[in-house]
Amino acid sequence: MKTRLFTPGPTPVPEETLLELAKPVGYHRSAEAKAILAELTEDLKYVFQTTNTVVTITSSGTGGMDAAVSSSLAAGEKVILLTAGRWGERWRGILKAYGTNIVTVEVPYGKAVTPEMLESALKANPDAKAVFATLSETSTGVGHDLEAFGKLTSKTDALLIVDAISGLGAMECHTDKWNLDIVVTGSQKALMLPPGLAFVSVNDKAWKKIEANPVRNFYLDLRRYKKSIAESDTPFTPANTLIKAQRASLKRIRAEGIENLWARHAKMGNAARAAVKAMGLELFAERPNNGLTVITVPNGVDGSATLKAMEKKYGFKLADGQDNMKGKIWRLSHMGYTDAFEVLGAIAALELVLIEGGHKIEPGVGVAAFQKAFAAK
Amino acid sequence: MKTRLFTPGPTPVPEETLLELAKPVGYHRSAEAKAILAELTEDLKYVFQTTNTVVTITSSGTGGMDAAVSSSLAAGEKVILLTAGRWGERWRGILKAYGTNIVTVEVPYGKAVTPEMLESALKANPDAKAVFATLSETSTGVGHDLEAFGKLTSKTDALLIVDAISGLGAMECHTDKWNLDIVVTGSQKALMLPPGLAFVSVNDKAWKKIEANPVRNFYLDLRRYKKSIAESDTPFTPANTLIKAQRASLKRIRAEGIENLWARHAKMGNAARAAVKAMGLELFAERPNNGLTVITVPNGVDGSATLKAMEKKYGFKLADGQDNMKGKIWRLSHMGYTDAFEVLGAIAALELVLIEGGHKIEPGVGVAAFQKAFAAK
User: Which residue intervals define the domain Aminotransferase class V in the entry (chains A, B) (predicted)?
Assistant: First the structure.
């Protein structure tokens, strides 16, 4: 049986990138290694849509988030946290660890934080040093209106610090045009690499705050990465084979073009949502993003068992809900090296297991709706 | 031309491990992923020679060192730093970043810190909470007597915290028998993997201190890793393809046997040192370790130009000295997936470039001495 990965990270990796990982390892302080990192950094700037400094950290995406917090904030400083799910809570965990004074703007799972909520919070907290937001809340499928958030924070002294780990590349994101001061992403989502690298874009407004911040970390202190990247280098031995392979995956994005990449994800997301509705199922996210489609498990259906059956019988690996969402939602990723025909297959497999489980669905309604939406202009 | 890597990290990676890295990526929260991490952890314990908890962090080796410091020490606490080179200075940088009160025991580059020095320092500083040491000081080729250090610290409340990044696997190291409380290593040295993973062994004495320590970090807080590894899991999305590949390289160590691995490195190191002396060159380290051989550049020879010529003409990539040691020493690694016949080749290449540069060496004295030492019982 063929197996197919539809989890919202890790995602499938292109064959030429995987083969890059099988090549002999080189020295990370050579001229060749610096040229590779320089090229990677340029391509990352393209993906981030920025002229900012972009640094590469050997860590999980959370390492990049920690770097953003610990490098830019002193203990006791006030921040506004916008949270709509588990990844907003990840920000909260990091902010708590570093002793910041957190003002929380929280919405239930499945909902999105609105620009109006941020506007009120900024008004009530003019002394906030930063706002923490999530581009794609992967735990619920919600996408946030970062453009509107940036319009609000850019009028204040507060930094807008964004977790774009699962969103960047899969949905429109303009770091510079939208005034996103710090943007964090990871290698294992739409950037089509295995996990292991975090990338962080930092603009001048943020560097100013960071340069004045007390030292709170060593390995994740962004100042060290800034100093090194100015010479196309890293402060610590990096995962250099992942860096070389990331370059290969970014070449694929360059070749496709970022606007085309966004449009392709939008088209896949739109078709997936149409299929879900045609199958009589409900979308969990009120403001869905194009990187993944999150489906509410219908009453009377065992959500976790359904996913296990899909994997065992048809080889499609979707993601369950996390923590207290387990069994309540299905998360179908369509970001990165995944095309519409594969998503169509996942819809077909979901139809099949639901029908086999006794759920009333007319075979073909989902795939037909997917095809219809996909074919539309 | 064939190219060969003799830098003390990264080191060559076995072919079956590289091919593992080229396989499709899996989901990191699956039962299969947990089984892989559990197996890896067992094999790591074997390499560490410990029954302690061993955690896997997605980071450079320095990330593991940072985790050891930030997880176990509060600001202002007194520590004894034993430093004999650049990697002792890396400990210092981290200790400074976290505001510890550092008592430094320092010897010049090329020398080793002695157990007597540590004994005096412990006597003079009974309130020291930890001692920081380096197994293999890769910047100079020195190896430290960790067994003797452990005998001293085990009689005190101070933790012995060891950077074994380039030493573990290449030289004898008994975490439990020697009373090493925290031991940090990295994937890219004798463990035969590309860079990207750090492994940290923590014993009960250290956990006791860590559990009582204030929270100072998020991503690198060892408590999070302890909690996860109890369920064969990681707190954050790990570099799961590196983990799977590390398992393959550790299988090789298991098959060889740790004592045989140490003996093989000892034999290679011994032969390399014999070759160096036979060529009329000097060893830089007064207490050389078996992971690498560090050679003093003779008067009148351009050290950096010689290495460049070796690489360009013969494809052998050795490492230069770092920072202010640049041009003054040559560092020839023989750890991990490197055998005696390859080191013999490196000795031959060094002989050739030196002769071509006008240095007086009888062709063959180095390789003959290597062979003679290697053949001896």
Answer: 26-322
CA-based nearest residue to B64, from B80, B46, B48: B48
Note which residues in 31-60 of chain B have CB less than 8 A from chain A.
58-60
CATH number at residue B336: 3.90.1150.10
Q: What ipTM did this prediction achieve?
A: 0.97
- Note which residues in 312-331 of chain A have CB less than 8 A from chain B: 317, 319
Contact residues, chain A, for B62 at CB < 8 Å: 218-219, 236-237
| Residues B196, B217 within the same domain | yes
Residue ending a domain, among B256, B271, B298, is B256
- How far does the CA of residue B135 sit from the closest CA of chain A (Å)? 18
Residue A169 backbone class (left: φ over 0; alpha: ψ -120 to 50; beta: rest): left
Whether residue A71 is found in the same domain as residue A104: yes
Residue B202 backbone phi and psi in degrees, to 5:
-135, 125
Interface of B with A in 202-261 (CB under 8 A): 215-221, 236-242
Residue of chain A minimizing CA distance to B234: A60
For residue B173, what is the domain's CATH number? 3.40.640.10
3-state secondary structure of A154: coil
Q: Tens digit of pLDDT per residue, chain B (377 long)?
A: 999 999 999 999 999 999 999 999 999 999 999 999 999 999 999 999 999 999 999 999 999 999 999 999 999 999 999 999 999 999 999 999 999 999 999 999 999 999 999 999 999 999 999 999 999 999 999 999 999 999 999 999 999 999 999 999 999 999 999 999 999 999 999 999 999 999 999 999 999 999 999 999 999 999 999 999 999 999 999 999 999 999 999 999 999 999 999 999 999 999 999 999 999 999 999 999 999 999 999 999 999 999 999 999 999 999 999 999 999 999 999 999 999 999 999 999 999 999 999 999 999 999 999 999 999 97
Indicate whether B229 and B265 sit together in one domain: no
Is the C-alpha dihedral spanning B138, B139, B144, B146 positive or negative?
negative
Domain span at residue B163 reads: 15-256
CB contact under 8 A, B237 and A27: no
From A256, A279, A302, the end of a domain falls on: A256
Please tell me whether residues A250 and A267 are part of one structural domain: no
- Is A80 found in the same domain as A24? yes
Asked whether residue A112 falls in the same domain as residue A249, the answer is yes
* A366 shares a domain with A263: yes
What letter represents residue B39's amino acid?
E
Q: Do A11 and B19 touch (CB under 8 A)?
A: no
